[in-house]
Amino acid sequence: MTITQLRAFLLAATLGSFTAAALALGTAQPTVSELVRKLEVEGGLPLFARTGRRLVLTSAGEELLPWARRVVDGVDGARQTLDALRGITGGVASFGVLRNAGYYFLSDLAERFHAERPGVRTRLVGQNSVEVADGVRGGELEAGLAVLPIDNDGLSVTPLLRDEVVWASADPRRLQAPMTIAAIGDAPLILYDAHYGWNDPTRRQLAERAQLIGVRLEPMIEVENVESALVLVARGMGDTLLSRAVASSAGFPASVGTVSFAEPLFDTIALITREGATLSPATAELARLATEMLRAPSLSTDPL
Q1: Which residue ranges does the record assign to the HTH lysR-type domain (predicted)?
Q2: Which residue from 195, 206, 196, 204 is spatially nearest to 167, judged by alpha carbons?
Q3: Highest mean pLDDT pick, 1-5, 124-128, 240-244, 285-289
């Protein structure tokens, strides 16, 4: 039994496939399959039930999983401790950022970090918060920023700031009073993050509130990013909801106005890491810098 075999098993178990594990390890899928097969042969027990498109742990795999995580985390922690003693002069900082990171000045994160740590390679992955959480949980990313709520199983979550979510429309009649959840059901609704739909944290909050009062929300148009949604709103096609940081940005359409919700709605941005894991010195420094930039007084948000 080797650390390489345990790492391959751990990634396959958390990511759900040998292909995803291979991508995380930077190797080929047959290599990961063979590493796990050798582990199964040595232990004399199958670790996965290979049915369907997603790997399912057997009872033996369930028993091995916490031990594999402990061993892998221990080896990674030992290596990171030695790296720290040498100083942050190399390595890779792997960090997930918000897809709307530019609205929180995080587009400058890579430039600033590189200026301070020129010897460190930086890997910033811009994703939906659901993907950031899955990437951190599965070990593809060491840490990241996510909008809450997320599934926090296996994660350590540190809230950093709160940003108000507002209603946006080009029709002044729909901005005369604070928006209510009940009124949304009658509005021509345009929503972004189409791929994740109601699993997106902001949309999830909205759906939960609507469910409590018996309102079913059906978007008229769904697009993938907030910029596309704003173009449609500016053309009078419908209304959307977005964070105050987006509404305060320089490129926000002049023809679009905003109004708060009658019951205020907020995006809470948090730093997430894998529970029990030790960040590498490079990623720990990148997380510190991202936190500092998010909490800068120039942002129209509430630091937590």
Answers
A1: 1-58
A2: 206
A3: 240-244
Determine the Cα–Cα distance for residues 170 and 217; give it in Å rounded to an integer. Answer: 20
State how far the Cα of 205 lies from the Cα of 129, in Å rounded to an integer.
14
Contacts of 51 by beta carbon, 8 Å cutoff, 6+ apart: none
Quote the tokens at residue 96: 């997930």
* Terminal C-alpha separation, the chain: 45
Distances, alpha carbon 252 to alpha carbons 37, 176, 236, in Å: 54, 20, 15
Establish whether domains 87-144+278-298 and 162-267 are of one fold.
Answer: yes
CATH superfamily placement of domain 87-144+278-298: Periplasmic binding protein-like II (3.40.190.10)
Q: Decide: 157 and 34 in contact? Cβ < 8 Å.
A: no
**pLDDT tens digits, 211-229:** 999 988 999 999 999 999 9
The length of the chain, given as a count of residues:
304
Judged by phi (left if over 0) then psi (alpha if -120 to 50, else beta), residue 197 lies in left
Closest CA to 178 of 262, 234, 247, 84: 262
pTM of the model: 0.68
Rounded Cα distance between 56 and 117, Å, is: 41
Helix (H) or strand (E) run with residue 243 in it: strand 240-243
Rounded distance between C-alpha atoms, residue 243 and residue 246, angstroms: 5
- Average pLDDT of the residues in 60-89: 75
Q: Just give the CATH number of 162-267.
A: 3.40.190.10
Report the mean per-residue pLDDT for the chain: 86
